[in-house]
User: Fold this.
Amino acid sequence: MNAQPLLEFRNIHKWFGGLHALDDISFTIRPGEAVGLVGDNGAGKSTLLKTISGVHEPEEGEILVEDRPVNFTSPAGARRAGIETAYQDLALVGRFTIWENFFLGRELRRFGLLRKKEMARLTDEALARLDVRVPFKNRKVSKMSGGQRQAVAIARGAYWAKKLLLLDEPTAALGVRESAEVLQLLDGLKAQGLTMVLVTHNIDHLWHVCDRILVMRRGRLVADLMKKDVTPREVVAHITGATEATISASSSAEAEQTSAGAATAQSTEALATAKPVQKRSAPKKSAAK
Amino acid sequence: MTTAPGDAAVIKKVRPFHLQALSFGGRYGTIVVLIGMIIAFSIASPNAFASSGNILAVITNLAPGAIVAIGLTICLVAGDFDLSVGYQASIAGVFVVGLLSGLGVLGIANASVDQVGIPLWVAIPIVLAVGCVFGLVNGLVVTKLGVNALIATLGTGTIIFAINLLYANGTTYSVRDDGSFLRMSLGKAFGVIPIPIIILVGFIIASWLLLNQTRLGQHIKAVGDDPEAARRLGIDVARTRIYAFMITGFCATAGGILLAASLGSGDANAGDVYLLQAFAAAFLGSAALRDGEFHIVGTILGCLTVAIGFNGIAIFGAPPFTQYLFAGGLLVVAVALSTLSRKYVSDL
Assistant:
């Protein structure tokens, strides 16, 4: 944990009209970490992910990659810095084979013509290295199952990600067996030392993959937890802003309606092991109510 | 990641017969129709149809339209439509004949001032460049103004026809040059192969290489299939579509030039029929071999189907209305086959 930080966010802000989508976000990610990014719908985790991947530009604050300030104006910029994204909706071209998808936008050429065999070979090697087994390698991606396609999308991200792979809910659209296969793939990537940020709603998957958990609520980063220090229930409490008592007493939907300010203050006291990022973690608006 | 146990085999087993038939029709329909016509015409008229002279004439005559259809195919692969290809082919013929015959760049209004024709090797590049400009305008209107491609190119096509009338006032001009223009269509390479066939083969090879062996080709296919995925992967979607329109314009005017060479004149409406023929050929082609995808080899098969159909009608002296009946019916059948092909064909 004493290595040079791979990625650092310093006091990042982002607004969408009146909505403070990212409110003073600061964190660092070190090489080899598998970081989970969780939060309820609308908490801002997707916006945060898109800010890392260059889709959104922050309006205030600083982003550093390996201690150098960067300003990604497009996903291409982030990709050049070695940051790849595996999107929830995959971003695969259905009529293309795996290798065509792997190399789309980054085709290898000789004398202006595509080096198809070379690209197919490199793709096969990458799939073998990642232990992704797909029947009929020259099949169109549109003819593959959802799990296979997700594996292809992740493998492509991992192949190009020199520094960081962002995963946007990779298991959200998958069944139980396919999810298990994707988790196995992520285990392999982790074992190979790839740094990952995983956005997920699934606490089981979060627990399976990640060592560290960032919790977002209403645009703020409310907790930065090491998995070994917390229980899943405590993470859920951070997500909803409820106390442990409220969680066990009522459904999480009701819990969210409790005064977020008071609840968070209590929960951070109760959870001695959890390290809240900021003291004033309650949104002012709800505290004023 | 482990394979889903035999999902492929299961799907194959449970496919009912009628789906298999539809899938066969979608993949091989065009080829069956083409071969069926060839066999039928050969049996019915072995002397007129199946002679080497007739076959060579059919291919020579289809060359200009096939070049237009190749251009349209590029546009269709990119997920767009271009309804202006016929008007582009027409104006190209008028324009090239005008340049060769001394109408000049500005056309009939200045004809008396400039009576000296421009040489062929200058006139052709000028007309092809104009075709690229038409494509550029189409592409800009569709991508930057966001106008639906069908409507946009219907509009630009009509404007192109207006320019056509402005240039030559709708008058058909016979070419007046040293004869090199007519040799483009009447000449034979190595004494046997008509030059239009050589030019057509050149366009087939070049367009096939472009679509299948170049980066731009990959990007055109990606943009046509899934523009959002292409954009996410850093491809400039608008620019790729504009390039596709420009290639379409280039091919449409090239086809128009070759048509004018075979007619020996520039007729304001000569290329208009290529719109329907090119669409019929491209859609027939998408129902050949490739599961509803537009592709060059398919388009050429589609062109052959259209041309041999027309040839058969001509040989048997069918009344004129049958030509239109055949052309219109073929377009509908072609699109239906193409749709079937996309819907039902599995790659197993």
